[in-house]
Q: What sequence folds into this?
């Protein structure tokens, strides 16, 4: 297991290096100079100003955002699947992402007042939207004291559809065509907004979420057995569930605000990882984080290199490579859940 | 078995009769057919007397062709020429078919940039033929005006205006043709998300004619969204944006902070221009080309 983690972390470092170095605009030597200059805190010879902007201010924050978003979505996806004990769960299916998108577009198109700076208000609006959606879903599903998985999924699908139509409505009723175009592009899921000033909040929220999930690793393992066995093992099931939902809304909301709605990472990665690590959360969650981060980093690199000079929303790439892989995984007869 | 409800039966018969009657309606009269810019065959029963224009650029083309008096209605987005203020309006995105039909047009004119062939099919199914204009080069402007004149029976007025536009472009060409220094130019449609024109757009003709060289002319997509990195790499000397003439160049830097080293920014050559003269493929593109030339080569090009 240690070897696996070592390999994953190594792959992560290599991938970040590649993501920063690949692209026609800057030579490898120039990339090296930029990093040396930045590592020595400006004591080395100054690199070309343009190379510096491209490598340090555009590519590196974008790679870091890919890690945060991919890792966050994948680990939250794994936890959601445990919450509902159903392999279909992920932030999208339970309506969190759609709620977050609706909240963020309300803010973006100026229907909500900017209380704080834009980098904070948008995640807050997204968090509120996501929390609102999952609370409705959860209260519908948990009507008679116990959470019904079937009702949870159905309510999730319904709320997701409702939130999506709210988003469409606000988007279409926006009076400013320029903002409308921006929102339409952002809705497709893209990492191109990444800047150093955008990064702190989603990074903090995601790492906080991961830490809370890891602290709950043992109760989560118990919950895989079912509510009653978990309760008998001394797990305060309802508390854990509520905490999980808040964490999921917080992480997903922050991520959606930063990158729009990027699908499939939260669904596919936990499945792939579980077939290697098994279901124990202490191992599953960190591995999900790293693999999700890797997956999105590569997807974004592909999106960048496929159409040089242009933005290709990374959500398209994650769906294009994710779905066939997922279907192949499903066909494997020995795959099981929980 | 329940006996059939007589009311429902009557309704069904009525429905069938209606559709049968509709089927018996006018079929296309093949006496007068024309081919539009998309290669579609358009059947006209006679010379049109009431036309609706489904995009603002098309309205401008029709007015330029001297056939403005035939227009029976324009879209919500129309604002030029001033005569459109007195015309009935309809929503064009999506097309409000009921309002369009209530204007009783005998021809609808469309732009392939804005309108979809599906909307055209719906209109044609209810008996309104649709003719598409397509502008992908700057010289298409004069051609579409001539075509509109031929279609609407105002050929001499249309030809006259088309000639004067062509002459104006030729005058500009004489001024800029021999220029050695052709600043590399980026034309942006929007500033936060970097929508621009890719290959196959008239905007590159305008930039070339204005004495610049467009940096997005070879991009594969027709309407690409640029990366910040692309702009840093291409180092445009001039950035023109369809953001209106009151645009503050500093806002561009606010959205794209890494561009502080782009020559257009350091040299103070970021200009907001009125969108309609560049984004609407109609006669006012010629004004736009002159305006662009004055921005790219101050002093060289006299006021028109």
A:
């Amino acid at each position: 297991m240690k070897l696996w983690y070592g390999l994953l972390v190594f792959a992560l470092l290599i991938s970040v290096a590649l993501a920063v170095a690949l692209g026609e605009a800057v030579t490898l030597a120039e990339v090296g100079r930029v990093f040396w200059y930045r590592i020595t805190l400006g004591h080395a010879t100054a690199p070309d100003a343009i190379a510096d902007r491209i490598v340090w201010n555009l590519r590196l924050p974008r790679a870091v955002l890919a890690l945060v978003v991919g890792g966050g979505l994948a680990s939250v996806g794994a936890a959601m699947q445990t919450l509902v004990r159903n392999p279909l769960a992920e932030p999208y299916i339970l309506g969190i992402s759609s709620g977050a998108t609706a909240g963020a577009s309300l803010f973006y198109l100026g229907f909500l007042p900017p209380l704080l700076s834009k980098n904070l208000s948008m995640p807050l609006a997204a968090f509120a939207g996501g929390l609102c959606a999952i609370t409705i879903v959860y209260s519908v599903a948990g009507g008679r004291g116990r959470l019904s998985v079937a009702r949870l999924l159905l309510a999730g699908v319904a709320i997701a559809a409702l939130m999506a139509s709210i988003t469409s409505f606000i988007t279409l009723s926006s009076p400013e065509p320029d903002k409308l175009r921006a929102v339409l592009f952002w809705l497709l899921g893209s990492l191109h907004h990444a800047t150093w000033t955008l990064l702190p909040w989603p990074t903090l929220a995601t790492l906080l979420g991961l830490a809370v999930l890891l602290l709950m690793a043992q109760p989560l393992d118990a919950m895989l057995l079912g509510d009653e066995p978990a309760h008998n093992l001394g797990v305060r099931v309802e508390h854990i569930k509520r905490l999980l939902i808040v964490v999921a809304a917080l992480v997903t909301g922050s991520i959606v605000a930063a990158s729009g709605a990027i699908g499939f990472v939260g669904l596919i990665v936990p499945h792939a990882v579980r077939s290697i690590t098994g279901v124990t959360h202490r191992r599953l969650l960190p591995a999900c984080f790293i693999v999700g981060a890797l997956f999105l980093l590569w997807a974004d690199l592909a999106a960048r290199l496929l159409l040089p000079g242009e933005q290709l929303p990374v959500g398209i790439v994650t769906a294009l490579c994710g779905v066939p892989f997922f279907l192949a995984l499903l066909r494997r007869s020995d795959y099981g859940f929980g | 078995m329940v006996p059939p409800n007589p009311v429902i039966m009557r309704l069904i018969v009525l429905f069938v009769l209606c559709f049968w009657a509709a089927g018996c309606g006018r079929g296309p009269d093949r006496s007068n057919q024309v081919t539009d810019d998309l290669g579609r065959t358009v059947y006209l029963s006679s010379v049109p007397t009431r036309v609706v224009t489904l995009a603002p650029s098309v309205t401008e083309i029709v007015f330029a062709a001297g056939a403005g008096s035939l227009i029976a209605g324009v879209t919500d987005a129309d604002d030029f020429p001033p005569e459109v203020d007195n015309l009935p309006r309809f929503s064009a995105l999506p097309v409000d078919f009921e309002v369009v039909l209530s204007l009783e047009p005998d021809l609808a004119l469309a732009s392939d940039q804005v309108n979809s062939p599906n909307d055209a099919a719906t209109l044609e199914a209810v008996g309104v033929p649709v003719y598409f204009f397509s502008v992908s080069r700057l010289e298409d402007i004069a051609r579409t005006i001539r075509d509109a004149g031929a279609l609407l029976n105002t050929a001499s007025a249309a030809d006259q205006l088309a000639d004067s536009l062509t002459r104006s472009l030729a005058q500009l060409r004489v001024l800029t043709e021999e220029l050695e220094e052709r600043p590399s130019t980026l034309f942006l449609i929007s500033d936060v998300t970097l929508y621009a024109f890719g290959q196959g757009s008239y905007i590159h003709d305008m930039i070339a004619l204005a004495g610049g060289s467009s940096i997005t002319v070879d991009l594969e997509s027709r309407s690409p969204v640029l990366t910040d990195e692309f702009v840093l790499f291409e180092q445009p000397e001039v950035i023109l944006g369809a953001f209106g003439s009151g645009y503050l160049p500093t806002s561009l830097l606010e959205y794209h902070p890494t561009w502080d080293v782009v020559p257009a920014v350091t040299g103070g050559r970021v200009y907001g221009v009125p969108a309609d003269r560049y984004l609407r493929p109609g006669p006012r593109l010629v004004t736009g080309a002159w305006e662009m030339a004055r921005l790219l080569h101050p002093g060289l090009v006299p006021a028109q």
